[in-house]
Amino acid sequence: MFFSKTPEPAQRALGSLRGQLLRWLLIPLTVLVVINSVSAYRNALDAADLAYDRSLLASARALAERVTVANGHVVVDVPYVALDSFETDALGRLYYKVSGIHGEFVSGYEDLPPVPKDLKRSDIYPALVRFYHANYRGTPVRIAALLDPVYDDSMRGIALIQVGESLEARRELSRRILIDTVWRQAALVAAAAVLAWIAVRFVLRPLMRLTDEVAHRAPTDLSGFDANGVHRELRPMVAAMNDYMGRLDALIAGQRRFIADASHQLRTPLTVLKTQAELALRANDAAAMRDIVEGIARTTDSTVHLANRLLTLARADHGLAEGEMGPVSLSEITRSVALELAPQALAGKLDLSLEADTEVGMRGNALLLHEMAANLLDNAIRYTPPLGKVAVRVASREGVALLEIEDSGCGIAQADRERVFEPFYRAPGAQQRNGGGAGLGLAIVRDIVELHHGAIRLDDGAYGGLKVTLRFPV
Q1: Residue 196: exposure state from Cβ atoms within 10 A (0-12, 13-18, ≥19)
Q2: Which ranges carry the Histidine kinase domain (predicted)?
Q3: CA distances to 57, 86, 253, 268, 316 from 245, in Å
């Protein structure tokens, strides 16, 4: 049964770094400028209202000075030309109304809108004045209502003086303030955009140089880049690139070395096969022919074994994908390997023992772990003399999966225990004991152990031979 993995959606390509930086700089700046313009515009309107309200209050006070009491009635003697002297802008029109102490109409525009109820007195001026907006004859106006005490010997009370002004002048001033504010802020944004573009272009120059250096570098040049040529924030990226190229260089060098060693190792058996085949073609005796064919079969078996070892080593060098890893039982894998190699141990008259806990689990690849255990046990059986002893132990201790293989064979000298993990290297004692080996077993074991984040150690065994200890995280 096969399962297809749903392909992940392709990641959308990122746009220009320069464009993104400019957008992240200019868009917030534009928003702040708009907010600042609105705030400045409102502050300017408040200042304009304050100035024009002061003019309205001055007009109302001028009228109040002409309000008197005559024959028990409130009267006012104010020609319009007197009000015109307080007008500050030709675009505005002034209206006024004077009411007596009982609210009766005295002078001015009788239909001027009344003061709204519950309208609070202005705290800006010491006078008893209130300001409000209204519509008068289809035109919006701003009105100042001043309470003015009036009295004589016959009466005493408070008169109401209202002075209204159309808003054309205020609106024109507001438009001028708005246009001036927007123009200045737009010029500020434009200047900031130009400066930001120049700054971003200058700041990104080292990154562009690094890009050109990467683009024009030869495919075989895997040397590192100079991290001092870029900014501090980009140095970790350059360091990561250098580290990656270093690992890539080591991988390519290992592959080249592996190909060279593999071709050298395969050339000998293939040459032997060709020679044996030529001898078989020239042989006339059936017995001699049979001996040659048997030699060809043995050479073929040895070549197949070598090729399988080379493929296993290449796979271990290449690494494992995450999907190839899963929960496995190290005890079950080791038990299976021991059963497979038991006939070989029996043929060599060896005492093969297995001590395994019921369940020692870990995360790994079952096929590679099987190959690892088979290599180690095969080596122990091959290099242990007859009537010798080989012990295999699997246990779980303190969060670690432990595999030990101990034998009473020839062992490995202390000076060779590091080199035996190199591909195609064989210790002198191993060559004397088994001249047909390829020198790949421990190299394969080391790579498989590293793929599973484990550790391998070679020690002198209690039986006089070699003790191999493997540790894996559970």
Answers
A1: middle
A2: 261-474
A3: 82, 84, 12, 35, 20
Instruction: Return d(Cα 180, Cα 442) in angstroms, integer.
Output: 83
Q: Six-digit token pair at 278?
A: 């030529």
Distance CA 197, CA 195 (A): 5
The β-bridge relationship of strands 94-99 and 105-108 is: antiparallel
Radius of gyration of the chain (CA): 50
How far is the C-alpha of 421 from the C-alpha of 394, rounded, in Å? 22
CA 471/CA 452 separation, integer angstroms: 10
* β-bridge mates for residue 129, sequence order: 146
Rounded Cα distance, 57 and 144, in Å: 6
Closest to 333 measured CA to CA, from 394, 244, 420: 394
Query: What's the sign of the alpha-carbon dihedral 102, 108, 113, 118?
Result: negative
Residue given tokens 């002078």 in the structure block: 107
Q: Which parts of 161-285 fold into alpha helices (H)?
A: 168-203, 205-215, 235-282
Q: Kindly list the structural domains of the chain, giving each domain's residue range(s) and its CATH number in brackets, ordered by start.
A: 21-176 (3.30.450), 232-315 (1.10.287.130), 322-473 (3.30.565.10)
CA-CA distance, 414 to 427, in Å (whole number)? 11
Answer yes or no: pTM beyond 0.70: no
Residue type, 206: P
- 358, 450, 426, 429 alpha-carbon torsion, rounded to 10°: -40
Q: Which residues, in sequence order, are CB contacts of 183 under 8 Å at separation 6+?
A: none
- Of 134, 219, 446, 180, the C-alpha closest to 312 is 446
Residue entry with tokens 């300001």: 131
Q: What are phi and psi of 73, to 5 degrees?
A: -130, 150
Distances 263 to 256, 268, 273, 394, 419 between C-alpha atoms, Å: 11, 9, 15, 37, 21
Amino acid at 286: A
pLDDT tens column, 135-150:
998 889 999 999 888 8
* SS3 call for 394: strand
The string of pLDDT tens digits covering residues 166-178 is 888 777 877 888 7
pLDDT digits (tens, 9 = 90+) for 299-353: 777 677 667 666 665 665 555 544 577 899 999 999 999 998 899 889 889 999 9
What phi, psi does 266 have (nearest 5°)? -80, -25
Within 13 Å and on the Cβ side, how many CA atoms surround 292?
18
